């Protein structure tokens, strides 16, 4: 099938077939989590009481519709392609939910690559052209949605994301924010899936050329990659140095560590220290732990490295390490995905707004 | 000027203008050092005594002509482009020397990316089509030329190369060889110029986000790159992650260390350990130090990281570190470039051959 050229508007044709007038449609919220690997959009129903205004969101909120697309990071694919992906996945989600844009109360786009308010404003201005003027629009970095996925939409606490890459992001109740790591592998994100796997590959090369101790990682990784000698790892690595491809070796490192391999254990222990130090840096800078260091704060844990849930549980070790310094850290493994976190974020913004409006009237 | 399409042979047209018959021309050797950044070819005169055969090469041998071209690593630019570059730079060198291919006694091509004997044979077969049948042809990895540049062509000892990348290569007198590192930055070449600079960039990011101590590297590197905040380093790094661009930050790390910065000093001390461990691994595996660990062996030191020759002298520290384990290491900073090393290698091969021929007759 030939790909149709992108024509703004054509993707919204489905709306003409939705017969219900706006006031009969259920009010909905769109939450979108846009990463470098994929983009997920969800549509959730928004509950309003005729007298009290917005209701607290249920836990976890029901998802009316969900759609998935590719990369929407403008740094990776360019502005035009990123925008087409974002608009298309939102249209698909609403189409699946049988709702028009008029039924939408709020949209929260949480996309990677949004680091400055200039990024935020650029995306907001573009989004404004798609949705009717009554729709509230919010644009955030994707780590904010990850935090919100664990706090039911409340922007407070610290989130640690450790998948292919890693970042720690924190928010205070009065709106201050801080981050640590998230600078990519060249700039030292060592606790990430990529970082752990690259250390393991390095350990195999070092064992082979005599710089390091022997390790079962050699047999395990060569077998996994169908290679016959560590020399071949050089070719394998540089043939396609994509971070996700290397990060995919993480389970072999965990297995070797569980089987007692010293080198693999050392790599995972280092990663635990690295990940914990990112969180500690954020907590310290924001004072999330209070003056005496004992205050409670949510610590949301997201990403494949922290969810392994094996005997060697990286996430659990990271929490232990953080708790020694900050016993008030309340670890949360979110039950919903970050796209739902984005929707909850929009929900929360709407509630705050309605409270402000009520005070004013 | 329009670039002429490559037509095999046309580059050798100059030979028709050299009037001297072959027996009146001086016998010469071609030495070529082909790397990922550039390719250097030199032509040196070969001295023969009519009775004793080849004479020992002078120290250092005079260079009749020299030509430079771009990358000739077949992994980087492909086989066809690599061959055209190699042939063209050899033709240019001979043309400058006023010599024809008939005057050449031997050619040594030392090119990066030659790691297996299959690579060697492929290049030898191609080279055979360019030169008359009397010309002796040798193909080696470029690190072999670097070793030869310090040993007057003798294949014995260990060479440590530390420029943008790093590798240690060793040879025994009976022809065994071993290498360590040289696997690129993903696989842990930490003592390289790239490795040192990447650690420094990481230290700046860590100081900024609270994971690491403050360091003067921040001011020094941001000033050098004309950036105003460590946040901008992320964009700078991934905009063009070429290893040489990052490695070029090395002098700032050395300056900060010399001025007493603890973090910069730590990075350089780690690099020293890394570089020394590559050499130690090679020496150990080959037994270059003899059974009691006290034997003398040449240790050739090549590359920008080892030639800094500042107050903080990385090369000197590496030698100190190696000498503790292997007091017989004889450090050599070559007076000639690796292309001359390649020519010396060919010279040495010729002498060995002539001795063998003499024994046979």
UniProtKB/TrEMBL annotation, chains A, B:
Its EC number is 2.7.1.59. One of its GO terms (molecular function) is N-acetylglucosamine kinase activity. It is an enzyme of class 2 (transferase). InterPro entries: ATPase_BadF, ATPase_NBD, Euk-type_GlcNAc_Kinase. Residues 30-346 form the ATPase BadF/BadG/BcrA/BcrD type domain. Pfam families: BcrAD_BadFG. Gene3D superfamilies: 3.30.420.40. Belongs to the eukaryotic-type N-acetylglucosamine kinase family. PANTHER family: N-ACETYL-D-GLUCOSAMINE KINASE (PTHR43190:SF3). This is N-acetyl-D-glucosamine kinase. It comes from Cinchona calisaya. The lineage of its organism: Eukaryota, Viridiplantae, Streptophyta, Embryophyta, Tracheophyta.
């Amino acid at each position: 099938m030939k790909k149709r050229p992108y024509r703004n508007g054509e993707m919204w044709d489905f709306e003409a077939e939705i017969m219900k007038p706006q006031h009969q449609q259920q009010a909905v919220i769109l939450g979108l989590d846009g990463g470098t690997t994929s983009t997920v959009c969800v549509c959730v129903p928004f509950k309003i009481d005729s007298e009290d205004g917005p209701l607290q969101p249920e836990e976890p909120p029901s998802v009316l519709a969900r759609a998935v697309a590719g990369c929407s990071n403008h740094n990776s694919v360019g502005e035009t392609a990123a925008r087409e992906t974002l608009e298309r996945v939102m249209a698909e989600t609403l189409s699946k939910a049988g709702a028009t844009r008029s039924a939408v109360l709020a949209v929260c786009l949480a996309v990677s690559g949004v680091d400055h308010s200039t990024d935020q404003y650029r995306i907001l201005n573009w989004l404004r052209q798609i949705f009717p003027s009554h729709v509230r629009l919010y644009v955030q970095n994707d780590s904010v949605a990850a935090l919100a996925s664990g706090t039911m939409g409340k922007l407070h606490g610290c989130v640690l994301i450790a998948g292919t890459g890693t970042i720690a992001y924190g928010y205070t109740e009065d709106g201050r924010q801080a981050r640590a790591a998230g600078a990519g592998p060249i700039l030292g994100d060592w606790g990430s899936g990529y970082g752990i796997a690259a250390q393991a590959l390095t350990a195999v090369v070092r064992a082979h050329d005599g710089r390091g101790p022997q390790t079962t990682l050699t047999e395990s990784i060569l077998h996994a990659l169908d290679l016959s000698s560590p020399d071949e790892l050089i070719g394998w690595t540089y043939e396609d140095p994509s971070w996700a491809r290397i990060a995919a070796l993480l389970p072999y490192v965990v297995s070797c560590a569980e089987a007692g391999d010293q080198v693999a254990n050392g790599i995972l222990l280092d990663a635990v220290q690295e990940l914990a130090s990112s969180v500690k840096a954020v907590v310290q800078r924001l004072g999330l732990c209070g003056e005496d260091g004992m205050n409670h704060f949510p610590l949301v844990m997201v990403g494949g490295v922290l969810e392994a849930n094996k005997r060697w549980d990286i996430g659990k070790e990271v929490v232990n390490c953080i708790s020694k310094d900050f016993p008030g850290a309340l670890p949360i493994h979110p039950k919903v995905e970050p796209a739902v976190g984005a929707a909850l974020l929009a929900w929360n913004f709407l509630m705050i707004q309605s409270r402000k409006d009520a005070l004013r009237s």
